[in-house]
Each structure stands twice: as C-alpha cells, then as structure tokens.
Amino acid sequence: MSLWGTLTGKKSSSHPSSSSRSSPLEITLQDPASTTSYQPTNTFDPSSAQDVSSFLGGSSLPDPSQLHPLAGLNRQTLDYLSLDESALSDLPGSRSALPSRGWSDDLTYGTGVTYLTALTLGGTYGMVEGLRRSPASAPPKLRLNSVLNSVTRRGPFLGNSAGIIAMVYNGVNSIIGHFRGKHDSANSIVAGALSGMLFKSTRGVRPMMISGGLVAGAAGVWAVSDALLRTLDDIS
Question: Rounded to whole angstroms, how far apart are CA atoms 29 and 186?
C-alpha cells in the first residue's frame, strides 16, 4: 500500500490472478467418422405396399348391415306395430271434397284452406281499393304505396278472422259428429252458427246473431255443395 493510500484510507484494489480469470470458450471438435451414425432397423420394400382394394376388401372392416340398431334382433320372434296412416275416417258422412283421416285432418286442412282463401280475397279487395283511392295523376310510387297499405290492411284482417272461425267451426263440427255418430248438413249448420256467435260474443246479442247467421249460411252452402259433389262422383 502506498503512502497516499495510508493517509487517505483508500484500500488498494486487488487484481485477480491470471489463474482466476475466466478462460475463453473452448470448442471441442470431434471427428465425424468417430460418431455413431443412425442405421434404420426396418427398410421399406415397395413391392410389399398394399393398394386401396386391399383395405376396402379386407375382413377388418365391419359389415354395414350390422350397424343398424335392429341388426341383432330375431325377425321370427319380433312383433311389429303396424300403423295404417292412410286409412280414411269410416264415420258416416265424413267423406268430403278433401280426403280426411279424422278430426285432425279436418282441423288442419279446413283452417288452412279457409285462411288462404280469405287472405287472397282480402288482398285482392285491398288492391282494388288502393287503386281507386289514389288519383290517376299521382306518381307511381304513391299509387304503389296506397295499394300496399290497402292490401296489408284488408288481407290479413280477413284471413285471420276467417281462420279463427274455421278453426272453431271444425272443432265444434268434429265434436258434434263424434257424439251423433255421423257427419251431415245439420252438423255443419249448427257448428257454423255456434262458431259465428262465439266470434262476435263480445259485441252484443245483435252482432252475435248476425255473425252466427252468416257463418251458418256459409256452412250450409258448403254442406250442400259437398253433397252435390259426392253425388256426382258416385254417379260417374
């Protein structure tokens, strides 16, 4: 330690010895010939390769007929439940212009046909009304707007009203035919009167009677027309 270091109290820095210094990275080179090379155990023989037909025709694939859920059942002892869905209703007078298998078909077909017919008639009436309301000198866009407003107002209103009446009518008609054991014109007229009265039951007695009479008359016309069509069909 120097004199100046003794007076100032500074410690002398110790220099690392050459032996404690880190040695540079040593890379060991090996002889490529001395390393062990990879030798495959199984070699590929092109002559032993299989084609697609060997996979498709092999016995390892399952039989497609065994994949059915009922494949393992014995057909000799298996009881089948036969449902004859095409059988029409055998109730007297139930045969009409539309083939029916029962009350469900009457409810579905009758309501659907009535709704579509009333919707078409209401839409046609609305189209004519819209053309009459708009002046001839009006621009095409205004006339089209008037027609669309009338069609969407008249068509759905008449279609929904007729669909509700037809749904109630077919339900009541089926109930009356079930208890009477037959379908005739009396069933249709009574069901029409009850359906029309129920449709206007919240408007008072007079609207109920008018609605019941109109629906009963329409049901009577349908019953007479249906009987006439069946008579002509039997004659031919």
Answer: 113
pLDDT digits (tens, 9 = 90+) for 186-236: 888 999 999 999 999 988 899 999 999 999 999 888 888 877 877 777 776
Locate 59 and state its tokens. 């016995």
Report d(CA 209, CA 206) in Å as an integer. Answer: 5
CA–CA separation, 99 vs 106, rounded Å? Answer: 9
Residue that is written with structure tokens 């009338």 in the block: 150
Measure CA of the first residue to CA of the last residue in the chain; give whole Å. 141
Q: Which two tokens stand for residue 27?
A: 């890379």
Report yes or no: 170 and 103 within 8 Å, Cβ to Cβ: yes
Angle of helix 185-199 relative to helix 140-180, nearest 10 degrees, comes to 130
Residue pair 223/185 in contact by the 8 Å Cβ criterion? yes
What's the pTM?
0.55
